[in-house]
Amino acid sequence: MATQKIAMGINLRQNKIIGSSAYGKYYPEVDTQKTLSLRGFAKHMTDHGSLYGRAIVEGVLMQITECLPELVAQGIPVQLGNLGTFYPTAEVAKDAAVLDIPQMDGLNPNDIVKAIHIRFLPDATKLDNLCGPKFKDACTLELRNIVDTQKVMVNGKQKTVTTLKPIATAVAEWKAQNGQGGSGSGTEGGGNSGGNSGDSGNSGQGQQASGFALTISKTGVGSASVTKDGNAIASGASLNEDDEVEISITPAEGQVPTATINGSSIELTEDGGVYSGSFAMPGQASTLVINTGGGDNGDDDGDDGLDKD
Hints:
This protein has helices spanning 38-47, 54-72, 132-136, 167-177, and strands at residues 8-14, 26-30, 78-80, 84-92, 113-122, 141-154, 157-166, 212-219, 222-228, 231-232, 237-239, 244-251, 258-261, 264-265, 269-271, 274-280, 286-291.
């Protein structure tokens, strides 16, 4: 296992189920990053000092993806060292329980088995325990965003879009709205809570960050990144008027993406399958909507957030 601990982001999502005893409370979920391809995983392994080149490592991994399902399909669990074991389980078809032994005569298993699932059981030995609380010790956690999923109308269609607001931004906004500042003594980073004697009643109140919030939403199949001066921008970030914001979109094959800012289309230029565009931040709180293409990925109950590169 790699010794360098890169932080795993933890987002918070509010329970909006009316009538639930947990209604209104926020619960953690992993801020999942863009999925690494087999080729990318092979490169990662070779970059960690493997004695074999990427082509050999990639070839071995490809062989595993072919042989492992073949063995599991025969009911043979496969243990991959200290990683864990892949094994099959049967999902029972609805109302397909066998009532008694006579009913088993001539029974076709396809009539009672709805699906066969490949499951993974992580290693639980003392040396390489990858189970739950123990694996958490191998992770470095950091709070990142509040996640919110809503139904919106995009180009006349209802979409499910997910927005991300940095938790630090949400806390600062709450303090500003409720007249609360930091607990410092007026020094930099202390929230100006002490204030100066001549502040005429403003002591103790924090100041809301300058600029305007940019809400970023994404629908469709594909990935997208939003940056300013080469730095990634998260949904809810505060930007100043006329700040130049760049967009890069890699849609699903054969799809053409779109992007709008406050409902106005942003011109995108295609180069090698990647679409890029930019806009100047309006002098107001704004909403950037990106549709990467690939059908109505958000029409039902999908949770399609902005992919992060």
